Amino acid sequence: MPSSPRQDADSPTVAVLGTGRMGAPIARNLLAAGFAVTVWNRTESRAAALVDDGAILASSPLVAASDAAVVLTMLADGTATAETMDGDAGVASRMGPGSIWIQMGTVGVTWTDRLAKIAADHEIAFVDAPVSGSSGPAEAGELVVLASGAGNTRSRVQPIFDAVGRHTSWLGRAGNGSRTKVALNNWLGASTEVLAETLSLSDALGLDPGEFVDVFAETALASPYAVAKGRAMVAGDFAPGFPLRHAFKDTGLAVTAAREMGLELPLTEALEGRWRGAISRGHGEEDLAGIITEANRRNGSSG
Predict the structure, then answer these.
(1) 180-299: CATH number
(2) Residue numbers in the chain where pLDDT is lower than 50
């Protein structure tokens, strides 16, 4: 068994609730940075895998948070987060004065506001801090943290963000982090769908899609994300860094937020139907790059 990482006596104990694709590497990077970390996950085996890295396995969210100065949630959605934190048996009711709740899951605008109210009702400092980046950047500690919340929490949580990310953007009042994440994910969804359709078009035009990506990479139109996704689409490499079903959930959050503001997102609304079809055909657990299969299926491309 590997030795446990050195724990910094001045660092707070962090309870990480939710140790899935993103939560597990976040917990590992906190451990590597010297934090004492307690972990819990609905599927216990996912949290138990972190014990060899030095984490303490908790049997419930309440046990995980009992001695923690900071509770970090990275759960599937707003419903799961509220069920874990709220109510008489919820974690929020047991958190002590001066404790901090860092909410890092992607739950959308409405749920973030509800969760902030739960924190306020229990007089807990709430930091809304979703992240930009998939499992690869999470494992490398290179996430971008979209932090928002009361200014007096910043010095206490910044070392945590430094351990898991390469950059933290502080965006003002709690909720602005999730609002920024919704907007970023809207761009991600629409641009990735357009990339898939463009590669399908290049194939239909008799071009080599791989050569097209090479040309694209040398233009001012390219971004590292688009080039990487384009090459994955051409190679048929759909190992999940950001599964399609998660991206589908996130574009839904963007559409919902827009409708609540009386705004239309016609491009994003159009891709939802295509992605729903891809998921129904078994591509939901594949990386978002897998949407190329849907573009090719509809267009009769050979790629």
Answers:
(1) 1.10.1040.10
(2) 1-4
